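As a point of orientation, let us examine one representative protein, giving the amino acid sequence and backbone structure tokens.
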Amino acid sequence: MICKRSDCILHPMHLRALIIVLCLAVLLQSCGKKIVPSVPLPPKTLAIEEIDFEYFHGKARLNYKDDKKEREVKANIRIRKDSVIWMTLSVIGVQGGKALINKDSITIVSTVDKEYYVFEYTELTKRFNFKIDYNVVQAAVLGNLIMPRDSTDKIHTVNNFDILDQKQGTVYVKNYINPLSKKLEKVELSEATSTNSLSINYSNFQPVSDKTFPYNGVISAFYKTIAGIFNTTITLEYNKAEVGDRELKFPFNIPKRYQRR
């Protein structure tokens, strides 16, 4: 799959408002005696297991689908923790593109069209009303929380899931955590001032080193543009995932004849 200009980047994160009210009541039987004032319950705690590593290497099948096209490629993914994400994309053994995501920007190169694109985080943040940086991208790839925990977060339980509700500006983030595995299984983002929304579903959890990693992930985005409302879905299915301390290489260059778009 070769991404075409800015419409290749997901328009993740502008979504409907969700207002959460937590109500806790403690009823004490008086047994005919005077009523004893109730003691407020302590705040609910929430344990979440996240992937931690120095280097990550994975191979996966990636399917991209929007309202106009659907493409499938094989992806080779390498990550150096908190530093760089490197990808090569190929179809039937022929490389068709590559990407480098670092602290400064996202660069995508199309070897077929001989062109490349550079996306700055500040522009993406402004466009989506949600802080987008390297940490957000890395967390989404690994199945970790895309927002840091905060004292204003709300915790409650719905349908056997522990829910962590977060808010950043006009964007609401709802995290679904399995209380048994302590793994994040679903993320929903909604933007209060638009109909834009994004969801990430993680599944097929398997051991990777001493942690559990989601081998399957589905990202679905609904977003509004001048041309109308669009739906984009990216499915990622890993067949290999490794973490460790062994140093990996991240070769990346852009030929001089390639044009920047």
Remarks:
- Residues 1-43 have pLDDT under 50 and may be disordered.
- The two ends are 17 Å apart (CA to CA).
- The longest strand covers residues 228-244.
- The first helix runs from residue 121 to 128.
